[in-house]
Amino acid sequence: MSSRSVRTALGTLTRHRDDVATARAESRVSAYVYGNVLVLAAVVGASPAAVASGTAVVLVVGTILSTYVAHVLAHAIGSLFGGEDGRTAVAVELRDAVPIISSGITPALLLGAAALGWLPALWAQALSAVVLLGRIASTGVVYRRLRADVPLRRAWTVGALAAGVAAVAVVLKLALTH
Known about the structure:
The chain is built from nine helices and no strands. By secondary structure, the chain is mostly helical.
């Protein structure tokens, strides 16, 4: 891969959008992090038997759907107290919460492949966890892509810290609830 190709790829990853207001960018990134952390907890908390039977897929899909609905509800209610029109607030939140859904797609597919016997269960869980931690580590770059006012070094630092905290949150969840 040439250095020009690398620069083009990096430019695509770090290009900015100027059409997203700060509050909406924060809402989207909040949904992105929240979805990834909760799906990560569901993935690592699933037993090998749950992965083999397909129950882990149901856990992941249930996690993303319930988190999506809860996130939309919470933010829409908060917006209503701020004086926004109800339909507009819900429409905005339905869009801004989409990163929650995207957080579970790859893990659900990987766990589904394991349930069908196409992939060992441990591999499916490990790959899902790696994908989710990678997504969490990219949080700063995701925000930077929505809002141009974040230096790239800070974006990567925030992402690395977020991935570390997410790993601690998962360990706490597993230690305290299983």
